[in-house]
Amino acid sequence: MVALILDYFGDWRTRPLTCPTCGWTGTFEEGWTELYDALQDCQCPGEHGLGARPMLAVVPHPTLEEWQAHAARLSPGERSYLGLIESGRDRFNRLKLRMASQLPDLAESLLDLGWDQEGEDLVIRLGPREIWREPVRYEALWRYEQILALLQAKYGPRLRDLAPTPAAEYHLYGDKTAYPAAVQRLRGQLRRAWTTAGIQTKS
């Protein structure tokens, strides 16, 4: 069975859903629901014995552009939420790393950097030293790749690693199960480039 994909701004709260296996009928919110960062879903709450419960419907969360397009129909709470999204995006765009020249000069011949999180900020560290800080993004593999490229442009083959800390993993990976392996591949490529360059570390 393929779950219905419902529009957040449509009738998903009142639209009747029917389970093709057991015949249960009800609304999305009367089913077994799970809330995630990117969507919410509904499974049939009826009797299915040892069988899997069918997934009846999925409601993706709106993008910022979709929220803005429906602003006139939003409740006060939703308008407040939209304001938070917009202010967060504006803060990120003001403070994000754009050019390698914004990064500090570092004298070390070997750079094992950390991808850390402190409150709502991403922090790039060299040991305890803060190298860069900007607003954190969710499911941020794309941002990891961008910052890694800027770090390589600034520090060249001296950069050996950009390792996520446990504090940063939630926002970096989110619900994307493939992201940890993708980050490991990027780190492996970085280590191989460092090894090929044959950088000698200072004793």
* Percent of sequence in beta strands: 15-25%
Give the helices and strands as they follow along the chain: EEEEEEHHEEEHEHH
The number of helical segments is 5
Distance between the termini: 62 Å
What topology, given as strand order, has the largest sheet?
1-6-5-4
Return the structural class: alpha+beta
> Nearest-angstrom radius of gyration?
23 Å
Tally the beta strands. Answer: 10
Largest sheet at a glance?
A: 4 strands, mixed
**Stretches with pLDDT under 50, minimum 5 residues:** none
Percent helix: 25-40%
Overall form: elongated
Could you explain the architecture of this structure?
This protein has 203 residues and is α+β, with helices and mostly antiparallel strands. The protein is 33% helix and 24% strand. It is built from five helices and ten strands; from the N terminus they run ββββββααβββαβαα. It has helices spanning 64-69, 76-95, 141-155, 166-173, 179-197; strands spanning 4-5, 17-18, 25-26, 32-35, 39-43, 55-60, 111-118, 121-126, 129-135, 159-164. It has a four-stranded mixed sheet, with no helix packed on it. A four-stranded mixed sheet has the order 9-8-7-10. A two-stranded antiparallel sheet has the order 2-3. A hairpin with a 6-residue loop joins β2 (17-18) and β3. The chain is elongated, with a radius of gyration of 23 Å.
Write the layout of secondary structure elements.
Elements: E1 4-5, E2 17-18, E3 25-26, E4 32-35, E5 39-43, E6 55-60, H1 64-69, H2 76-95, E7 111-118, E8 121-126, E9 129-135, H3 141-155, E10 159-164, H4 166-173, H5 179-197
Parallel strand pairs: 1-6, 7-10
Antiparallel strand pairs: 2-3, 4-5, 5-6, 7-8, 8-9
